[in-house]
Each structure stands twice: as structure tokens, then as C-alpha cells.
Amino acid sequence: MSHGALVRFLDAASTHVYVLRRNDEAVGLCEFEGVGPPDVELVHFGIVPALQRRGLGRYLLDRALRAIWSYGPRRIWLHTDTNDHRNALATYMRADFRIYQRQVETFPD
Q1: Three-state DSSP state, 92
Q2: Beta bridge partners of 78
Q3: Which of 37, 49, 50, 89 is the most buried (most CB within 10 A)?
Q4: How is 48-73 classified by DSSP, letter by letter?
Q5: How far is Cα 25 from Cα 40, in angstroms, rounded to an integer?
Q6: How many H helices and E strands in the chain?
Q7: What is the spatial distance between Cα 98 and Cα 65, in angstroms, rounded to a whole number?
């Protein structure tokens, strides 16, 4: 993405990015798209590998979701798959996300 495209993306009112910092170093990210309309998507979420399993992800996700819920969306949704961290689904379930659909997708090699 070009610098200009990145600036436009981050400046969009519908894009919200929350960064978790530890000693001024970015260690986690939570990105939402579609803030404003009734359905908001959590598109990216993660903690750097060295700091996983310390409760930081739970903290970041809780704070970010509280902020997004304050905009009054009807729902917040996300898509996860087997390429995500093995604990991703459990993390989302603890944050009160519910499984809406499961499906098998195949892609050509």
C-alpha cells in the first residue's frame, strides 16, 4: 500500500485501529472496519509472539471492543480460520463472540 493510500485508510472515520504499547513499543493491534454502519468487522487482531499467553490479548480485545460498542453498532463480527493462532477461536469466544457459520473452503494450489 502506498503511503498516501495508508494515510487515507487510517484517516477514514470508519477505520479504527487500537495499538497496545509496552514501554513505547507496539506489541498488539486491533483493527476494525465499518465503524458507523450497523455492522462492524474486526479485521485484524494480534499480539507479538514473544508476549502471547500473558493476558495482553484479552486486555486489548476487551478495551477495543468496549470502545467500538460505544458507537452503537448492531453487531461486531469477524472471520477466523485455521491459519490464525490455535487459541484465536477460544479468545474470541471468551470475548462473547458466537459462531455464526462454519464452512470448508478449498483453494487451488
Answers
A1: helix
A2: 42
A3: 89
A4: -GGGTTSSHHHHHHHHHHHHHHTT--
A5: 27
A6: 3, 4
A7: 14
* Separation in Å, CA 42 to CA 10, 38, 68: 15, 13, 10
Strand order in the sheet with 25-33: 15-22, 25-33, 39-47, 75-78
Residue whose entry in the numeric block shows the C-alpha cell 513499543: 25
Nearest-angstrom CA–CA distance, 88 and 91: 5
Instruction: Give the residue carrying C-alpha cell 477495543.
Output: 64
Say if CB 34 and CB 80 are below 8 A apart: no
C-beta separation of 40 from 32 below 8 A = yes
Q: Which letter does DSSP use for residue 8 in this model?
A: H
Residue 31, C-alpha cell as written in the block: 483493527
Q: Are 44 and 72 in contact (CB under 8 A)?
A: no
